[in-house]
Amino acid sequence: MPSSLGFPIALLGRNVRLASRRNALRIAFLGSLLRAPLGVSAPGRASARRTFMQQVRFTSVSAVPLIVAVGVVLGTTVILSAYSQAARFGVSELTTRLLVVAVIRELGPLLTAIIVVGRSGTAIAAELATNRVLGEIEALESLGVDPAYHFALPRVLAVSLSVVVLMIFLQGTAMFSGMMAASAVGSVALTDSIASLHVVLQPGDIYVSLVKGLLFGAGVGALCSFEGLTCSSDPTQLPQAVSRAMVTSFVFLFAATALFSVIVFR
Amino acid sequence: VRHVIGFSGFELPSSARSGDPPISLDIATGGPALLLLPEADDAAHVVRACLGLRPIVGTLTVLGTPLQTGMSKATLRTLRRRVGTVLSPAGLLSNTTLRKNIALPAAYAWHPEAGRLEDTVAALLELCGITRWADVRPAAVPASVRQRAAIARALAIDPELLLLERPDLSQPAEAEWFAGLCLQIVAAVVVVTNSLHSVHADLYEQVFHTSTRGVSRWNAPITT
Which of A17, A194, A230, B47 has its CA 20 to 30 A from that of A135? Predict the structure, then answer.
């Protein structure tokens, strides 16, 4: 084979090999997260609980204004567009169902998780990578502290919980603001929208949404923690760790969304 | 005689460049010991190898536990909780106070009754003479205080061995304090460094020095 053809193939092979190795490390990291709580003392658990609470405060409480703003914009644009198009095609009765599927099942969990990646996931990766660069993680590891338990697990749980809480805020705000907007432009009365929502909103929609929120949050928390904890001690690697955390989280979110859609709508 | 650390055919990172033979030596329990190595990287490697944080070439035994590749995390964690280690740099968490830094590894290493942890930390702050800095973050204190806090953190897990990587004891006040500390604690003390001037060699009962001929030992205290 000519070398001009061999080089890109060799490069592709090398990248595939490196990506496979990195994914194997990610899976091993998930395993260590699951095993981490075993045999931890009560003061150790209390210490991790403090980290958990701080992360919940930063990831969910501080993000509520942003989530509400996004929810208002999402609800207004999506619902107004949907109502106007549905009226044109004479399928107004399907509009609320369509909105439930779009906002509650699909966009709510995905948008919330994307906001959490941009706001908290990158912060987690940057913080843990800084801890690594400064030798703080190695120092604690040398004294028998498990980094997976102390640094990663509280953040994974906190992000998971926060995505669910923020998702409920986003969905509620989007639905309510959308109905208000539809009512304001005279598309449909607010009372009719609410009555219709009662009929079309199935328990399954809520379960799927909650499971997605939990899974997305846990995945984002784990991926961002992994990238931070596995950063090398070279300070130039810190921005790359943050970038990798963001990219892998987005890939995970879109892949998981597609997978959920295939499973649920099959 | 029980040995706290034993090396046999142990290769240092600098050996490949310098051609020095692998080191074989046993550090016995007793007074403080100093292991003087050719380069800073060697000191970092030896300390981390003792904790299973670096792969080793040769044989290394710490507190009777032979270090091997493929040891389980739980076994390594148990060993690390028997060795109070102070790395260089000290690696205190920058976003929390000295008091919380000292308490953190102890919280995981022990199963103390409620309140006992705080008493232990207070006693260690007193022992290390840093009580007035207890509620200050590491960035706001002098380097000597950070070093003492790192030693207090290592002692908080009640170790059998206190292992220090390249401590800076060049200031007479720090050397004097460290000598007093060695007399007060139960743990064996091993200092690993590449710079004799920074550690006051007359503080130690055992001094090991590596060279092209292998490891030499001074039994009597030497002066810098």
Answer: A17
